[in-house]
Amino acid sequence: MFLSKLREAWICIKAGRVTLRYPFAPHDPEPGFRGKITVDPDLCFGCGGCAHVCPAGVIVVRDADQLTRDLEFHWSRSPYCGRCEEFCPEGAIHMSAQFETATDRHEDMVIHLRVFMGPCQRCGRCFLPPTPLEGRVLPGFRTGDGGRA
Description:
Elements: H1 2-15, E1 37-39, H2 49-53, E2 59-63, E3 68-74, H3 83-87, E4 93-95, E5 110-116
Antiparallel strand pairs: 1-4, 2-3, 3-5
């Protein structure tokens, strides 16, 4: 019994340091790391595709009026899967390398964005609110009263 524990201790000592000295020494994440969501408001035109593909419902889309749309990114709920970044046709959403996001205020964990629903740079169509015929339940879209559409 004692010899097996001694042998195990010797294996661990021989291996050396296997952990990082973080937080005492800075550490940059590896390339491809998916951290905090960042949104470029100049590139976003309000298509809502990111909210449609988000599996966790992180992105909430509300129509402020006929030509502007409010987007809220509740990234405290984000699984950091990166689907919103992959799906964004304009590349407005990026997963940054920032991973130190601890805060004691909920407001710090929400990104508010108001965008003008302009035409898509690829197809030239505008993204207007759906007509009554298209008023089906869309994942990620919520009504003004906070409930699901």
